Amino acid sequence: MSINSLNTSISYLKGVGPSRADLLKSELGIYTFSDLLNFFPNRYIDRTQFFKINQLQQNSSEIQIVGKITNIKTVQQKKGSRLVATFRDETGFMELVWFRGAKWIKDSLKVNIPYVIFGKTTYFNGLFSMPHPEMELVADYKKNLRSAMQPVYPSTEKLINKGISNRVVSKMIQSLFEELNGNFKETLSISIIEELNLISKGEALLNIHFPRNQELLTKAQKRLKFEELFFIQLQLIRKKLVRKAKIKGFNFESVGINFNNFYKNNLPFDLTKAQKRVLKEIRKDLGSNAQMNRLLQGDVGSGKTIVALLTILIALDNGFQAAFMAPTEILATQHYNSVIELLHEMDVTVKLLTGSTKTKERKIIHEQLQSGELDILIGTHALIEDKVKFKNLGIAIIDEQHRFGVAQRSKMWQKNTLPPHILVMTATPIPRTLAMSVYGDLDISVIDELPPGRKEVKTAHRYDANRLSVFKFLKEEIEKGRQVYIVYPLINESEAMDYKDLMDGYESVTREFPMPKYQVSIVHGKMKPADKEYEMQRFIKGETQIMVATTVIEVGVNIPNASVMVIESAERFGLSQLHQLRGRVGRGAEQSYCILMTSFKLSADAKIRLNTMVETSDGFKIAEVDLKLRGPGNLMGTQQSGVLNLRIADIVKDAQLLKTARNVAIETLTKDPSLKEVENLAIRNTYQQISKNSTIWANIS
Ligand code: ADP
Ligand code: MG
């Protein structure tokens, strides 16, 4: 068979036909022979194992038992009747139950003759029962040949209702194998297969659908998972190499007066080792003639902003402008204020552009940008609007990049004749394994060290019932001159319920902390930007001691004197959000605290989240737990990435294999960048095939 037959429409397969083909397309996305071949079971039932009745466990999966029916009775119930048979083996007895078809089943059952029964058991009142078991006489069971590991394919209700059961799918795949006659092209090189001790492609496909035994199934899974991850990595790394070789970038060859003056006179502290290392990595990129596309990861408070500013100054030194984009107005304003302060007495023009910038000011900004008078533009999404044109944009910094969509980020690329250098920053650490898949085509820098002298934030979990003692503690801290955040969940901006919680909370706080002794600020998403800013400023200046807020303060806000973070209904927040919120305190010299308030009713997941927060402040550890709890698809910033639509591999469970795949991909491309060696012919063919067929790659960063 030629390779083309894999592209044959599924409707030509024996046993399929047009109407089934339509269902396969709409329900499972199976269009061709190849799609069906790569439609893998999501689990297997081990039909080699038998249970005894006294070994049964509550909530077990499908099992099989050998025994005999000793008694059959019909039980009348409100609607119709049900058939109940007593089933015994030498260790005990259980019941088999039928709610439908009782009449004809009753006639077909044989008493005192050994059966193999198969199905799920339920447990009630000390008795196990199996509803609607699959049954076969032991004599027949022995005659039939079957695969020991029975594959179970993903399915949908519609498919089942239309009669496309698991057995039907299995049959289709069987005729597919007959049709293809075992001709499967190898996709990997011999040296990779040998080095990793993999089985061949053909053997893997056969055993994933019809496993001969557990060992071969495991080998088939390993081979196919590796292959899937390998080709993803190969594409990501190749893309990165191509970008480096082809996409020319502005060459920032010199470090000049701005950078040097700042470093000598204005830098308020010594950089940490990690900040210096990252800065070196960035400088190397900027002077390499290629466009920089780098992700800077660093835990909350690790000091990414100063790295961003130094990077900007290098751009300025080379005659370029810089853009610095943040996801919220509060954060953009804060960046603006701190940049202005850091650059004091330097001859650099900085402006702020957000949704609430007045038309007149906006016009001035547009003009200054185009004339080149403006050096640094800081702002929100407003920065990427088409109207915003630079004379010579050299670098774009995107803070908290997971808050931006891929499309928004890529708009930055079009702001100059050559794409500007891009530095994206994130304080939501994603586990390395995931970063490799999602951001595999970016270079990654990590600030893995906090500035010296930071005290770890003491974190405690308290129940609502203990609120009074929490308030007492807040009063003591305020007495010492500290400031307090109290944050309410606002999961859905439009949900009236959440606002009610916030307002009720605000009221009870003002009652407990009355004026004039205490001043309480409130900030939430429905306020006008100017009002928000006014309240923020009061808190920053220390005029108010308590800030009641929603998660608008989650990202980036930096107020060193605020040392207590109270999170209300903490069970409703995700781990990364809790971590971000906690990162708002612990920024000054004082001991800081984070108090997680919850009701007594907590889900198992919520308990894990709260315990994790109490036990660790390491963002990477927290991210690992988050990944395990929620699965990779739900992590911030990864949703749009098609990279996670894997057929067989699992980024969490197969993290080790992913690392191997990445290393092998790097090794392969290092030795043979364009895959033109004879040895890599199979890889190249597959690679080209995948690149042609897949659309997901267009979505990566
Ligand atoms: P993030 O990485 O979360 O954006 P920031 O850049 O806001 O962190 O920095 C957090 C705080 O740490 C700021 O107040 C900043 O001035 C301070 N900081 C940054 N780097 C250092 C350093 N090397 N030594 C001391 N303080 C630093
Ligand atoms: Mg920041």
UniProtKB/TrEMBL annotation:
GO terms for MF: 3'-5' DNA helicase activity; ATP binding; ATP hydrolysis activity; DNA binding
EC number: 5.6.2.4
One GO term of the biological process aspect: DNA recombination
InterPro entries: ATP-dep_DNA_helicase_RecG, DEAD/DEAH_box_helicase_dom, Helicase_ATP-bd, Helicase_C-like, NA-bd_OB-fold, P-loop_NTPase, RecG/Mfd, RecG_dom3_C
SMART domains referenced in this protein's UniProt entry, alphabetically: DEXDc, HELICc
Keyword terms of this UniProt record: ATP-binding, DNA damage, DNA recombination, DNA repair, DNA-binding, Helicase, Hydrolase, Isomerase, Nucleotide-binding
Top-rank EC class of the record's enzyme: isomerase
Domain (Helicase C-terminal): residue spans on this chain: 466-633
Pfam families: DEAD, Helicase_C, RecG_dom3_C, RecG_wedge
Residue ranges annotated for the Helicase ATP-binding domain, each copy included: 285-447
Catalysed reactions listed for this entry: Couples ATP hydrolysis with the unwinding of duplex DNA by translocating in the 3'-5' direction; ATP + H2O = ADP + phosphate + H(+)
Superkingdom in the source lineage: Bacteria
Function of the protein: Plays a critical role in recombination and DNA repair. Helps process Holliday junction intermediates to mature products by catalyzing branch migration. Has replication fork regression activity, unwinds stalled or blocked replication forks to make a HJ that can be resolved. Has a DNA unwinding activity characteristic of a DNA helicase with 3'-5' polarity.
NCBIfam families: PRK10917.1-3, PRK10917.2-2, recG
Record family assignment: Belongs to the helicase family. RecG subfamily.
UniProt-recorded name of the protein: ATP-dependent DNA helicase RecG
